[in-house]
Fold:
Amino acid sequence: MSTELEKIFEGILDGNSKLVVETIGLAIENGIAPAQILNEGMIAAMAEVGRLFEEGEYFVPEMLIAARAMQKGLEVLKPYLTEDDVQSPGKVVIGTVKGDLHDIGKNLVAMMLEGAAFEVIDLGTDVSPERFIEAIKSNNAQLIAMSALLTTTMPNMKTTIEAIKAAGIRDNVKVMIGGAPITQSYADQIGADGFAEDASRAVVKAKSLLSK
Structure:
């Protein structure tokens, strides 16, 4: 691995946005391919962040600052990736369901998905079924990721899935859900395609759902 890629990798692990942004600029100048910067420097770093989180060495604050450093780097790298025609694993519409204003977990999942090169359309919080449907249609998204942190707003996940069915687009989109009170059995009960208990697992689950 080149020095620049190592620096980008370490910069993301440390949450050092300034170092990541500067080194990406340097790597581009030195002729390192944008796809290589993305895969070996950034996606590899976020995979390592996910591993450290699962092993209990990193916690949500460390994950958040690593994901922010990665996002800043992506802002610099994106124009070059488009020129290079790097393929994204898919488009994801993400949001916290209607009535729920919690967004830390949702933001973290969105950042981790971006770190894995997914195209993410983040609708924010308190998202109605209609807005989810509109975003799926207008972006031709393959995956919808819904979050709820309250037991009182969980039923809105089911309502949204029913609305997607009624709109006739359920076969076009996979549905992934998550949030503190959510379980695999609840996902099965409401007809979701997948459940992820944290942000690093959400990336793995998104990839597996879209590869089917």
